[in-house]
Amino acid sequence: MTSSNTQPEFKRELGLLDSTMIVIGSMIGSGIFIVSADIGRIVGAPGYLLLVWLITGVMTMIAALSYGELAGMMPHVGGQYAYLREAYNPFVAFLYGWTLFLVIQTGTIAAVAVAFAKFIGVLIPWFSEKNILFSFGKFHITAAQILAISSVILLTYVNMRGLKEGKIVQNIFTSTKIIALLGFILLAFFVGKNASAIAVNFGNFWNASWTQIANGKILSINPLSGWMLLSAIGVAMVGSLFSADAWNNITFTAGEVTNPKRNIPLSLALGTGAVILIYILVNIGYLLVLPLPGSPEATDAVGRGIQFAVSDRVGTAAASVIFGESAAIIMAVMIIISTFGCNNGLILAGARVYYAMAKDKLFFKSAGILNHKSVPGMALVVQCIWTCLLCISGTYGDLLDYVVFAVLLFYILTVIGIFILRKKQPNAERPYKTFGYPIIPIVYIFLAAAISIDLLIFKPQYTWPGLGIVLLGIPVYFVWKKQTDEHDDLQVK
């Protein structure tokens, strides 16, 4: 028991299994069931579909292994925020924390919550997005939005009850979705194999093309080669990178991990490796069941192919070939489990960054206080409120389109931070050193920078606003800093 005169402290209750479950659970949401359709339209060939996921996997693993060194050096609450502060300065760290709060973490939680609600709507039609409960001109609130908000509030409440409660939910739901995905893979490999789909996919394995669509109609199909093929791969990786993101969330909880210098680097390696392997196997499963090319006018899942699965729900389309009419319900249950567990991990971890920012006087002071359950209760509440506002506004989808560029920007800065800290703090304890240093981290920096430039050129409507959100944090930082300094001066006087 904590005495009334003693401030609560973080409890180190996350072991290696718990930490790995946070990595896996935060990464696997609804993306793996959906984004392969868009990737398929952009690259147009099974070989390049798998290559996009493979490159994503390599990049994610390199970044995770690189972060392992930083996690071992600085097992502090806030993780990546703390790494950026130590490698650069509080200003750069604030820009990351600002973007995380405004878009990256909360926008992702909102989108995952709405995906959760959408698939509940498959089972209980009342929760459909089409069921509008309130209208104010063009602004609508649907039953799906109310359910999404309710799920965020529920998970926030669970995590305010203590770390133990949060990790129990995480372990149960993450274990369940791993088993469900492995079951899907086995069924696709051994039960759902479609000879015609296999013939189409493996007969045109590397015939790349970019299919442009509008209003559900094909506008053009352009063959790809050379630089345009490389550019298309970069653009296609937006979906796969987003689906593989949030692996770094375990670093945010470093103050609650047992033996963090060992367990955080190890959980990063084990968790990201497991997820990437599952993702690639799931996509091979899709290719064994469905042809990649298809027609938006087709009436069945095989005819529509991966490219034109209804509402991009490739997982449901593949399941319909395996399970028949019950596929929609089976896949809805899988995605409900996956998204609920994913959001628990995101909600649990994100609040720890705002806690660390508050301790640096760069966020609301109350967010830097632990409640009687030794968790940052007010940080969880603030995160919940902003996330719920995003759910109601409906803008989270647009915000998420901006996220990948901003995320890559901070990943690049953090990996560069390894080189900076090796010079600034050459004698610091490093229980784990980055694999393949300096070559492997340089490869990541080059690939991530190339994709970022590619997105600036080919998806300017998404990337420039993403950069704008980051830059908007500059005046906010100086205003916040000025107010804090003035408040401190008054207290001194």
Explained architecture:
There is one protein chain. 70% of the residues lie in helices and 4% in strands. With 493 residues, it is mainly alpha-helical. The chain has one domain (16-492): Amino acid/polyamine transporter I, CATH 1.20.1740. Strands 1-2 form a two-stranded antiparallel ribbon. Strand 1 and strand 2 form a beta hairpin. Helix 5 crosses helix 6 (143-160) and helix 5 (90-123) crosses helix 15 (377-393). The protein is globular and about 70 Å long.
The level 1 CATH classification is Mainly Alpha
Strand content: under 5%
Compute the separation of the termini in Å: 37 Å
User: How many whole angstroms does the radius of gyration measure?
Assistant: 22 Å
Task: Classify the fold: give the CATH topology.
Answer: Amino acid/polyamine transporter I
Give, in spatial order, the strands making up the sheet with the most strands.
Answer: 1-2
Low-confidence residue ranges: none
Give the total of beta strands: 4
Total separate domains? 1
Provide a brief overview of the structure.
The chain has helices at 16-27, 36-43, 46-73, 80-87, 90-123, 143-160, 163-190, 195-203, 226-243, 249-252, 260-289, 301-304, 314-323, 327-359, 377-393, 396-424, 439-458, 460-492, and strands spanning 132-136, 139-142, 209-214, 217-223. With 493 residues, the chain is mostly helical.
What are its keywords?
single chain; 493 residues; mainly alpha; Amino acid/polyamine transporter I; two-stranded antiparallel sheet; two-stranded antiparallel ribbon; 18 helices; 4 strands; 4% strand; globular
Q: How are the elements arranged and paired?
A:
Elements: H1 16-27, H2 36-43, H3 46-73, H4 80-87, H5 90-123, E1 132-136, E2 139-142, H6 143-160, H7 163-190, H8 195-203, E3 209-214, E4 217-223, H9 226-243, H10 249-252, H11 260-289, H12 301-304, H13 314-323, H14 327-359, H15 377-393, H16 396-424, H17 439-458, H18 460-492
Antiparallel strand pairs: 1-2, 3-4
Helix pairs in contact: 1-7, 1-11, 1-14, 2-3, 2-9, 3-9, 3-11, 3-16, 3-17, 4-5, 4-16, 5-6, 5-14, 5-15, 5-16, 5-18, 6-7, 6-14, 6-15, 7-11, 7-14, 9-17, 13-14, 14-15, 16-17, 16-18, 17-18
